[in-house]
Amino acid sequence: MASASRVRVGTLVPLAKDNAGSSNGSVSTIPIFEGSNVIGRNHLVVADKRISRKHLSLQTSADGSIEVVVEGPNPIIVRSKGQRRKYVDMADEHKSSVQMDSCSIKKGKRHSEEDSAAVKRNRQIMEDEALARTLQETFTEENTTVCGMTSGQKISQLDSAGSSGKNSEKMHSVGPLKDMLPLTFRLMRVQGLPSWTSTSSVTIQDVIQGEVLLAVLSNYMVDMDWLLSACPSLRKVPHALVLHGQDGASVELMKKLKPANWILHKPPLPISFGTHHSKAMLLVYPRGIRIVVHTANLIHVDWSYKSQGLWMQDFPWKDTKDLNRKNPFENDLVDYLSALKWPEFRVNLPEVGDVNINAAFFRKFDYSNSMVRLIGSVPGYHVGSNIRKWGHMKLRNVLEECMFDRQFCKSPLIYQFSSLGSLDEKWMSEFACSLSAGKSDDGSQLGIGKPLIVWPTVEDVRCSIEGYAAGSCIPSPQKNVEKVFLKKYWSRWKADHVGRCRAMPHIKTFTRYNGQNIAWFLLTSSNLSKAAWGALQKNNAQLMIRSYELGVLFLPQTLQSVPQFSCTEKNSSSRDGLALGKTINTKLVTLCWKGDEEKEPSTKTIRLPVPYQLPPQPYGTEDVPWSWDRRYTKKDVYGSVWPGHG
Fold first, then answer.
1. Residue 279, annotated as binding a ligand
2. Distance between CA 202 and CA 181 in Å, rounded?
3. Are strands 30-33 and 76-80 parallel, antiparallel or unpaired?
4. Quick check: 104 pLDDT over 60?
5. What digits encode the pLDDT tens for the residues 339-351?
6. H-helix segments, 193-314
7. Site (Interaction with DNA): which residue positions (predicted)?
């Protein structure tokens, strides 16, 4: 139909950055008529081969509404609410519409990416999505079924919606212990990702809930304003102690914003360049205590846009007859808390009475059903028996006591973290020696494993959901990252199976694996540095550590009961856990493990949501490890460069 005989309903006008009408010479104004309109290369004044001849189709209605259809794999850029996103079509099926003011863009499954160089990688992400959903649902179902496997009652799944979209507003909510958190850990929810990635993930509201009598919050960075708005129930907690690592103006702001009954304490740092870096919560309830170990600072971006991990378990108060009974978890916890040296204070707890809140107070709880070991670091020059209480020597000590399947002999190691210290090959050998400890089930030593480092590339950061801004939380300078001897370790952050390729890692994990089988797995606050893990000195007679760190170690176990105690659910099972009726050996695997559990009825498979691909993919020739003090002029998904100017 000739345009002269059609009804003109409007005009497309090129926009400047401020969304004001602008004529930059490359695009003329384009008349829009009622019905079908095709927009493409022919409308350009200046030729641009990135634009196809039939790039967009616009279907307009008499009421002024417009439906925009992007043809084929053509890239588009959308500006909305001050943000600039580029979309590249990744699939033709399952077309859907996304509302944008009075218009809608019909699109296939589009991932927000900035240029066509990322298309191939993102196509793989899309192809993996169906598998990933299945894995997430299996993970949820597996860990829920364990709870009821001897009771004859299957506890309802924590997210019956799965990835179907039903009850999507509840997608993030996780029942306190229905999902077997003590035996595994959870990834934290990331905003802006597809809903299927939130299955089994946690938010801060899932953790801090119920009638908390006393809260001890340990962290490095604390944004008091965000914390109290994200978790308003904290304002009702009668007593709170915040252990932090900040100083100067940050502390003054915390003092100004904190509730009057909160106590702030920065643990002593006797050795220069140390930090209080541990991320944990100790929440005391009328029924017991919830211990939480995680990887996020108490700030908005860490709980919203990063790949993070969290473990928690609830423990009851000890019976009077058991007050002197101790176990390794309890001893490790109290030893660690003793080093923090907070000013003791006295509180009145219902049914307990007046108590002094010091490290020894935390012996009042029964940790006999603990499912992990604590691996802590505290600053100091550790000698004698203390040399094996902290840092990588603590991990070595615990692993040496363990027996592992023979498949893990000489099996590889993974170091995954978000900040790289100044390292040398001697220390890397020392560290690998600790992480390679342990015996095979035939009695032989496992032997030294070959380590790989999972670390984001510059391109990963540039294309992330935060763009280059994510790089500010991966604070490693060129001088540390670009040491020649490190080249052989670099491996890609590939998290397709959990939908977190574009959520940059702040999680820290260390593991030994063979295929999709896990010998052991550590979730920790520790980055790869001597300050965090310690360095042996004086002919290995002294371990020097600068910082406070805390992590939880998952090991294969022999169980006769499954922990079911909950501080927040009054109808939870007994304090002694759910009896299995037989002895069960646990086996650690990734979400991608495809073995046959039926072959081993006496073994329970524990799926850990390891957030990166195993085995990891080594860096390619074009891959450059991220360092935060380099200049990057290729624009990110928001049109920014790094450092953030221009």
1. yes
2. 11
3. unpaired
4. no
5. 999 999 999 998 8
6. 204-207, 224-230, 249-257, 300-304
7. 529
Summarised one tens digit per residue, pLDDT across range 135-167 is 555 554 444 433 333 332 222 222 322 233 333
Q: How far apart are CA 389 and CA 394, in angstroms?
A: 5
C-alpha to C-alpha distance for 481 and 468, rounded to whole angstroms? 17
- Nearest alpha-carbon partner for 511 in 586, 422, 616: 616
Taking the C-alpha atoms of residue 474 and residue 281, their distance in angstroms, rounded to an integer, is: 24
| Mean pLDDT of the chain, nearest integer | 82
Which is nearest to 418 in space by CA: 468, 497, 493? 493
Strands 558-562 and 578-590: antiparallel
Q: What is the per-residue pLDDT for 8?
A: 78
Using alpha carbons, select from 509, 528, 525, 519 the residue that is nearest to residue 613.
509
CA-closest candidate to residue 317, choices 174, 214, 175: 214
Paired tokens of 186: 């959870």
Query: What is the per-residue pLDDT across 377-396, written as a single tens digit (0 to 9) for each?
Result: 999 999 999 999 999 999 99
Does 508 carry a binding-site annotation?
yes
Asked whether 580 and 490 are in contact (CB, 8 A), the reply is no
CA nearest 637: which of 173, 77, 145, 22? 77
Pairing state between β 353-357 and 345-349:
antiparallel
**pLDDT band at residue 56 under the 50/70/90 scheme:** confident
Which contacts (CB < 8 Å, 24+ apart) does range 327-332 have? 327/367, 327/368, 327/370, 328/373, 329/367, 329/370, 329/372, 329/373, 329/374, 330/362, 330/363, 330/365, 330/367, 330/370, 332/373, 332/374, 332/376
User: Which residues contact residue 501 at a Cβ distance below 8 angstroms, ignoring those fewer than 6 apart?
Assistant: 121, 125, 460, 493, 494, 495
SS (H, E, C) 488-525: HHEECCCCHHHCCCCCCECCCEEEEEECCEEEEEEEEC
- Single-letter amino acid, residue 436: S
Residue 181: which pLDDT band, with cuts at 50, 70 and 90?
Answer: low
